Amino acid sequence: MAHTINKPLVGISSCVLGEKVRYDGGHKRSAFVTDSLADFVRFVPACPEMGIGMPVPRPTIHIREIDEQQRLTDSRDANLDHTDKMQAFFSARLPQLSKLDGYVLAAKSPSCGMERIKVYSDKGELLHRKGQGLFVQLLKQQFPDLPMEEDGRLNDEGLRESFITRLFAYHDFRQQVTEQLSTGALVGFHSQYKMLVMAYNPQAYQALGRLVAGAKGQEEVTARQYLTLMMHALSKPTNRRKHTNVLMHFQGYFKKQLDKADKQELSEQIDKYRRGYLPLMAPVTLLRHHLKNHPNSYLQQQRYLQPYPEALGLRG
């Protein structure tokens, strides 16, 4: 099942692509990003700190809490404030940012870090480590549903698959629903993604179904709500138990089509996956085989069978 011809458009911190733009003249090249993901998406690189005119190398910067507002300043001198320039840089890029399907960010950066960023007082005292980079704050305010992940967190298998799943789902949603909004488009999209959402969050699967059922006459509002709920549902890594539940749903459709030996083989594959002896690709590949021999239009359209390019190797 091929994805749309147009590859997803992914914003990315330039240093994660290996560009030497960090404050110390270094980079944070991610092997997964450059050696694997790069073949399946179109990257839009940017270094916000260079975007506001800072050189390489450059003085370090901090997030400071001043008058109950977070400001981006020089780490040694709070009077050297870069906040307004960063906001202007972000605003100038809005037309480009609005076309993105996801964003890969640089961890620990006071501009691009998603979490655990140090926040200082106006006098330079450490207040806490619960901040976000200023560019990320602006990105989340403007595009709260946009799939985002940090370079370091992409080393975690569950987080990596969750992000890639969201990235391609977001891309599909924009092309299938946002660009041709109608009740039919919402129903069609939901029909494709039912099993995938179920594999991550069965409760959200039910809630999304109720949303779509009441979409007629309020498609725009429903589409926004649907995307928000779906991205939230896919945002946490899933597990073997939930996948097994979905695999058994697929299995149920073959009760009358498969002979005894094929049923036994499929049951064994699903059980071996459940117990950790096989990767997910094993039962999924067998399901695809049976679908070729016993076509079922509803099952064949399920993104669960291939939510992203198989060559990424995330189910292996």
From TrEMBL:
It holds the Pfam family DUF1722. Coiled coil: none annotated. InterPro entries: 2-thiour_desulf, DUF1722, UCP037004. This is DUF1722 domain-containing protein. Residues 194-309 form the DUF1722 domain.
